[in-house]
Amino acid sequence: MAEPQSVTQDCFLPDFCSLRMVFAVIILAQLFAFVLVLISIDVADASMWRQTGMISLFVQWCALSSSGTLCYLRRYLCQMPPLWGALLSYLAVLLAVLVLSEIAYQLLYFDLSLVGKHLGYLLRNITITALVTGPVLRYFYIQQAWQRNVKTEAQSRLQALQARIRPHFLFNSMNTIASLIRTEPARAETAIEDLSDLFRVSLRDAQQFHSFAEELDLCERYLDIETLRLGERLKVEWDIKSIPADALLPPITLQPLIENAIFHGIETLGDGGVIHISGKCEKKQLQIRIENPCQPQRTMVNGGHHMAQQNIRERLASLYGKHADLKVEAYADRYVIEVHLPYRNTLDEDTDRR
Predict the structure, then answer these.
(1) Residue of 333, 238, 253 lying closest to 295 (CA atoms)
(2) What is the pTM for the complete model shown?
(3) Selection from 235, 233, 238 nearest residue 267 by Cα
(4) Residue 279, SS3?
(5) Which strands form 334-342's sheet, in the order they lie side by side?
(6) Bridge partners, residue 336, by sequence
(7) What homologous superfamily does CATH list for 164-342?
(8) Domain parsing of the chain, residue ranges
(9) Dihedral Cα 157, 158, 161, 165, nearest 10 deg
């Protein structure tokens, strides 16, 4: 049965049902068994290999049974306060090892050289389990607290990155709207609505995603505002039919890049120019390309490009890790930016951010 994500996502106990954790338990248990063998058995003893096999079998039995117990109880333990969850986890492991030790003793009672005295055998196993389980559970708790702090810091940084809006865009937009209020009030009202939509999206939770269709609509609203200011100097060519409209991406991913293409490209040219925006989706990977003309001396010298680029690059890294990237190509008279990110159309898919 799948565990409710809302219950287990902040639990300090890892998922002991996963194959990766089972494999780790087997490897660590075998290493621990070897340590016990080296401590308690004379390597010159002829029966060393037999006793090594018995000890390894028992340690693996205890480790896998304890893991299975925590796997079954995890959904209940994660609903408890951390202290109670850790305490009950600790007691559950001790109880599992105690029961297995008693079973092993009853099965091997005929060979006292392996098990020794009954009470001493049980106490030894419980003591070893207690000394090993305590630090392990403590490690899981500290690791979960560290991951929670890292996640909180990453979310705060991502929210700050998403909230950045270039001041010159706001000032230019407000100046354009002010110039239209008397002569063309209807267009000024439309521009105000477009501007409010842009800022509404910028204040959205940084962990939210929206569809490519919504991002496209946002970019078109922005371009409508800039067209009021630049007129015929600004032209845009779109070639994005191969990008699925339901593809999810972080809000305000393309708008800052289009803004840079206008501010550092189109505005620097007396006759303006054409911004080419194209994209495709191949092998579950989105590729969006923005190309704009510019004056040769501004392709690499002007640092305004790099602020928006670094902003987007850091946001993609926070959300997708190594699976997303932003690439730049600067030529003598044009500037090209390519955004690569995974295609997904549901929030349930794992993006593997690290």
Answers:
(1) 333
(2) 0.58
(3) 233
(4) strand
(5) 234-239, 273-282, 285-293, 334-342, 325-330
(6) 291, 329
(7) Histidine kinase-like ATPase, C-terminal domain (3.30.565.10)
(8) 5-154, 164-342
(9) -130
Task: Output the furthest CA–CA distance in the chain (Å, rounded).
Answer: 104
39 Cβ contact partners less than 8 Å away, ≥ 6 residues apart: none
CA distance 83 to 81: 6
Q: What is the pLDDT of residue 3?
A: 46
Least confident of 156-160, 210-214, 252-256: 156-160
* DSSP state at residue 2: P
Which residues are within 8 A (CB) of 122 and not within 5 positions of it... i.e. 6 or more apart? 98, 101, 102, 105
Tell me the H-state helices in the chain: 5-8, 19-40, 48-77, 82-107, 112-115, 118-163, 167-180, 185-202, 212-230, 255-263, 304-320
Residues 6 or more apart in contact with residue 265 via CB below 8 angstroms: 273, 275, 292, 293, 294, 298, 335
285-299, pLDDT tens digit by residue? 999 999 999 887 655
Q: Is 242 helix (H, G, I), strand (E, B) or coil?
A: coil
| Type of residue found at 144 | Q
Q: How far is Cα 158 from Cα 136, in angstroms, rounded to an integer?
A: 32
pLDDT of residue 102: 85
